[in-house]
Design brief:
This protein has 231 residues and is α/β, with parallel strands linked by helices. Helix 5 links the parallel strand 3 and strand 4. Helix 1 packs across helix 2 and helix 4 packs parallel to helix 5. The longest helix has 24 residues. The chain starts with a helix and ends with a strand.
């Protein structure tokens, strides 16, 4: 299964070609998949570069050790190799394989935000070059102890209003004239979502999120958003 998974990532998601320099971001918890990716990228004529962390680290986002002990200008530092790879390489495969999804929940949020600001230019390079077609990136998950949807684009074509009502939501928005995109594993794996953007000034109502969201090891609970004509 690992070999087949790697084949999908290499041939379909990142469609590695001869000469491609490929950054592989992962922790040692994903070693079986990393080994297989390394082999298959070589077989495709690519040049794999490993950037590995210990279990518990979050690839790309700085881990709890860094955020605990780094201070001052260290938090503003842009990782040299990351920056070069995202600006120059042809591809990046990131494997989220954290063994503790709440590793940084006790970190000072100000330190997290300051470090995230420093990393912003790297994310901007990823999105810009990805849109240009010069950077083939894909993000996936590898099962750790710490961790299909039917396509409906044709059915949604031509629809106007979306209404969401329930104990934690009362929201209306328009999708009139909007095109839905089909995610088929080119940037995230597993995939299967379909998405669009609503008509900007059509969103009205409110939504509460009762399930905690964990991003970069930081847990956010009790979020509530209220919209008035898209704002």
């Amino acid at each position: 299964r690992v070999a087949k998974f790697a084949k999908v990532l290499v041939e379909h998601s990142a469609h590695i070609a001869p000469g491609d320099r490929v950054l592989i971001e992962a922790t040692t918890a994903a070693e079986p998949l990393v080994r297989e990716l390394y082999i298959q990228i070589l077989e495709k004529g690519g040049h794999p570069h490993l950037l590995m962390g210990f279990p518990g680290m979050v690839p790309f986002v700085q881990d709890d050790m860094y955020l605990t002990y780094a201070k001052g200008e260290q938090l503003d530092f842009i990782p040299t190799f990351y920056k070069y790879a995202y600006d120059q390489f042809e591809s990046r495969i990131r494997i989220h394989s954290a063994t503790n999804t709440r590793a940084t929940t006790s970190i000072d949020p100000a330190k997290v935000q300051r470090n995230a600001k420093a990393l912003r230019s790297i994310t901007e390079s990823q999105m810009r070059r990805g849109a240009e077609g010069t950077f083939k990136w894909v993000t996936t998950l590898y099962p750790t102890d710490g961790y299909a949807q039917e396509k409906a684009i044709d059915w949604l074509a031509g629809k106007n209003q979306v209404v969401l009502r329930g104990p934690n939501v009362d929201l209306t928005l328009s999708i009139l004239g909007r095109k839905f995109m089909n995610s088929v594993g080119l940037f995230n794996m597993p995939d299967g979502e379909i998405f669009t953007g609503p008509v900007e000034d059509s969103v009205n109502g409110w939504v509460k999120f009762t399930y905690p969201a964990i991003y970069g090891g930081v847990a956010v609970e009790g979020a509530e958003l209220t919209f008035d004509r898209g704002r």
